[in-house]
Structure formats: C-alpha cells, structure tokens
Amino acid sequence: MTKAPYQLTFRWLHLQYAENSQFVETYGFAGNQGNVNLEGILILPEGCPSDTLCVFMHPASTLQLLPVPRALVAQGMHVLCAASRYAKNDTALIMEKVLLDLGAYIRHAKEELGYRHVVLVGWSGGGSLTLMYQSQAQNPTITETPAGDPVDVKGAGLIPADALVFQAAHISRARLLRDNIDPSVLDEFDPDKRDPELDIYDPSNPNKAPYSADFIADYRRAQRRRIDKIRAQVMETLLDLKSRGTGELERPFLTHRTFADPRFVDPSLDPNDRRPNWSYIGDPETANSGPVALGRFSTLRSWLSQWSIEDSKADGVDNAAHITVPFLAIENSADDAVPTYHTPAIHAATASKDKTHHLIKGGTHYYAGQPDHLTEAVETQLGWLRERGLFQR
Hints:
By secondary structure, this protein is α/β, with parallel strands linked by helices.
C-alpha cells in the first residue's frame, strides 16, 4: 500500500425510524417511544468524492476503531461503520430486527447521502449478517422471528447491495456456539458440576491433544445434546410465559462455559497457521468461564434468533445460495476466531457467478501487529472493487 494520501474525517450519523414492538427490549432511548434510533460513523477521505460507499456492520459491535475500515478510507474509499440498535450488548439481539437496521442505513446512503453504489463488507460476525441481509433483499421471505413474533422483513423493501465482501467472517453465531459450547457441563445452574472426561481444560482428563477421532465424535455429539437441552428449556419457558396471559413476556438467562472448541488446544483439527492454546479474546480456558464468551447472557427470544442451530435464520451457507451480486471472500490463514472451513464453505455455497476467494497467509483475525497483512487485505479489496468499477482511485 502506498503512503496514505488522504486525511480521515469523521461524521456522526443518526437515523430514526418508526417501529412498534410488543415491549421495550433495549435499555434507554434506543428502542422506545415508538422509534428505533441508530448511530453510525461516516468516515471520509478529505477532499475525495466517491459514488461508492462501503458499509461495515456487525450485529452487536461497533467497527470504526478496526484497522481495515480506516485503511480503506486512507486510500480514498468512503466507509460507513453502522451500529445496530444492539450496539455493544447482544443480550436481547434479534437478527431479523438487525436486518431492518441495516436496511435503514442502506436506504439512507442511497436516497439521502446520494451514493450510487453500496458495498456490504461483512467482517467477523458481520459476515453472516450481510449474507442474511442480501438474501432477504433479493428474496424476501421473513415475516416473523424464530419465537413467532411478527417482524415484516418481507415487506420492508430492503435495498440489495451492489457487491459483498466477506472478510475474516464466520458462517453464523449459531454454528460458532454449537462448536464452542462446553459439553462437560452437567447442570445449567451449576457450572462446577462437570464431566471431567469431556472437559478439555481439566488436566486430569485422560483424553489429551491431539485428540482421537472417536473422542472428537463423542465431544461433538455431547455439544449438540447440550444445545438441544438449552433449546428445549427456552421453548418450554416461552410457551409457559405465553400461556399465563400476564405482563411477563420475556426472561433473561445465563449460559455457562461457552468457549471450548477443541480446535483451540489441538491445532491438528482443521489445521491452519493459528496459534495453539489461544483465541481472539485471549486464553480460551479463561474465556470459557468469563463474561465475554459466546452467548453468555441472553433472552429467550434472542437465543432462538442468534444462537439456536435449529432455529436461527442467519446461517451463512443457507443464505449464500441466494447471493448473485459480485462476491469477494477474504480468509486469514492464522485466524484465531474463525474456523478454517468457514470461508471456503461460504465461497462454495455462494450462487454468484462472479466470486473470488483470497487467502492471506499468516493473517490473524485483527491483523494485530501485522501491517503487511493489513496492506494485503486492503489492496485486495480495493483492487477487486476497481476491476468492477466500484473504486476509481
């Protein structure tokens, strides 16, 4: 990458649109008073016009501090880092409602900001979101959430993006939880009651890495049993609350130990260049019981929408089958967040006739301390967009 020719300017963007919901699900002014309020950061290269906007959105994170969006702007690209109504708190997050939020940003970009082209860039958890959005924009079908609550995605008039970039992204949050949940937990209310032979962090466990194929098969079956057990409890509780006919409509709950994918401790499983015994949020054993691991806090409805492998409509492979716009997938060979099979699976499933898969050898999830890999990621994306008339610099 050449020396950054453009200074970055930052513009706060506020969007509001009407929505009537059964009850308030987010704290504060974000989703009450009959309106949804959204905040984004429009990052522009000073003195450099463009008719293309790259939109970065994650279901629950804000992305304006990431290196890739800023590096794109430094090279002349216009970027919007769009936050959903669930910014920095996915406890009550409903994926179907995030689609409506993303749709509001894209409509604003085209109709109010005047951009001719919008490119969706799905980084990490934003990858499955962008696939779900584009699938519903091209082939709208959703009229209710997995919990049966009405949500008119089908009638929302979502505007399709002109191209998609899938970058260091996973297939879905539900697949990640299925592959990461700790099957050693025997009691959902007491995380100290565990099966030591299924606890990959227990030094007394006779099963050691590299694991046998039989152990991994047993482990994966036990993970699915735990997911199914949680789902059954969620469904039973929802039905019970609905049957009461009272004002109690929702309930939060805690899921213990959700960061125990054996890939963390056994690099021979789906091998790539990742660092063993490490993850994108640090020591996996610590994260397994900590507050920031996958699906730790959730409401009943949110769990079905985000985390249920049986119910979530955000599966990237399923949604990729409806994607027909130009599609770029960027995989990092040392990614410490996304299993190595995810990006190739998405690339293979995508229906677009114009699709590209690029592997960045040695790249980690955040490119932390990797300026050369960051340069490769940005130049790959800009070159790909330039070839399709979506970047003029």
